[in-house]
Structures are given as C-alpha cells and as structure tokens.
Design brief:
The protein has 290 residues and is an alpha+beta fold. It folds into two domains: 100 residues, Immunoglobulins (Immunoglobulin-like, Sandwich), CATH 2.60.40; 104 residues. 39% of the residues lie in helices and 18% in strands. It is built from seven helices and eleven strands. The strands form three sheets. Strands 1, 3, 5, 6 and 7 form a five-stranded antiparallel β-sheet that branches. It has a three-stranded mixed β-sheet with strand order 2-11-8, with no helix packed on it. The chain has a three-stranded antiparallel β-sheet with strand order 4-9-10, with no helix packed on it. A hairpin with a 7-residue loop joins strand 9 and strand 10. Helix 5 packs antiparallel against helix 6.
Amino acid sequence: MLLGLGWLLSSLLSAQPSAIASLQPERIETGDTTTLLILVTGLNSEPKEVDFNAWASVLPATNILHRSAWRRSGNQWMRRFTLIAFDSTSLELPPLQVQRTSGNPLETNKLKLTVFPTPGGREITDMAKIRDIRREPETWLDYWPWAAGILLLLGLAGWWFWKNSRKPVPLQAPNQEIAPTVSASEKALQQLDELQQKQLWTQDQTKEHYASLSLILREYLESRFGIAALESTTSEIQTMLISTDLPSGSRDLLKEILQKTDLVKYARSEPSAATHLAVLDKARLLIDPH
C-alpha cells in the first residue's frame, strides 16, 4: 500500500505544470545575441504570452529582436526569443511569468547573463570587424503581418478612390508656385553640415554623432539608389550596391565609413576630434565626388 501511495504521489507531482528558462549562450560580447528558450511541461493547451515586465529595468523590451510561436514537442511546449545586449555587465535576471488559459501563471527559474566588452584599441582602424547577427531560419509566419498590412492598405486605397471619385475635381489656383525639388545629394550634404555644426563629440555624445551620420548616409542611399538601406547591415548594403551605378571606389569608401560608425555605436570606440572631421569629409566626398 505504501508503494502504491508513493507511486500515485510521484505521478501527481510529475503532472504539475512547470516552466523552465535557459540562455544559449550565457556569455556574449557587446552587440551579440543570445537565445532564450522557454520550456513548459504539464499543459495540454498552448500557453499564452511570456511576461517580460520583471526584466524591464535590466533588459528593455527593445532588446528582444525576435519572438517565435509556441511549438509542441511531445509533452512539452517550447518558445524561442532572440535577445541582444549592448552594455558590458553581469545581469541577474529574475523569474519570468508564463500566462496560461486558466489558473495562475507559471514562474520560470532565475537566469544570469554575462556581457563582456568587445576587445579593441582606441583607434577605429585597430578595431575588429563587427560580427553579423545570428538569424533564425525564416518561415511563412514571419511575413503574415506584411500580407495583412498590404491587404489593409489596398482596402483603404479602394475606399478612398471610391469616395473621391464622386467628388468634383477642384481647380488649381492660378499662379501657384511649385516648391523646388531638393535632390538626395543636396539634402544629405545639408544634413552633414548641420551635424558638424552641432559638434556632439564635444558634449560627450560621440555615439549619438556617429548614429546620426550612419542614418544620413543610409537615407541618402535609399533615396538615391532605391535600396532598403535603413533596415540592412553594412555587408547587406554592399551586396545591394553591386547592381547600381555606384563606382567600386565609392563602395569601398562607404564600407569604411559605415564600419567606423558601427564600431563607435556598438564597440564604444573613442576616436579623436580630428577623426570625426575626417570621417565627415569622407562622407561628403562619397556623396559629391566632384
């Protein structure tokens, strides 16, 4: 009888729902990613959302780059998250709560993430190349929001056309001046002049200065050559520019500038004031080589 009671007790305990969290790997460099795995056992129905509020003070929600859907394997539910960290530190991550259809949320175990700085010298030329983000394989589920957005836009466009097709077309006012069109090169050169006048590096805002410089160049490339530069990495931009009329020498110069901005943003490089001005001059030469 005692053996039967012990077997029954162990069966009941093993059937209790539980949630386990793990990081792979637990030690990364600044700017690298790690994978958070959430395993839930003892549930027949799919778990709900994972509550990251407990991590808000140490790892903001913007550092979660990707969230997969729940997947079932045997008697376990698994969900994968891709995280990124930029500051070198040792993070003590409290337990997370996994919501479920009924009953109290499940609580995971505590985690620890160690982020150590990327080794490198003080000058940009001494720094190692930034490693690309390790990406998960894409599935059709990653693109359904785009399809839904396109259908919504088509519906709005059809409604707008139907609504306005029944209205009389207003006459254009006489002598109406048309604003002059500013080219992508002129706009980018003007933005570079304004950025240099701010001299953010004198205000301990070197990282913000190079982030603004990178944004100006990516907006110029997207407007000038019609490529998705704002959402692409430096290596991806180089690949897309091969099919454009940008000379190879200019592509090499662009690669040098973007790598320097990446190193300052992610590896905390501290270039000299002369280097800041030299990089701005190279950016102008890239935009207007004449």
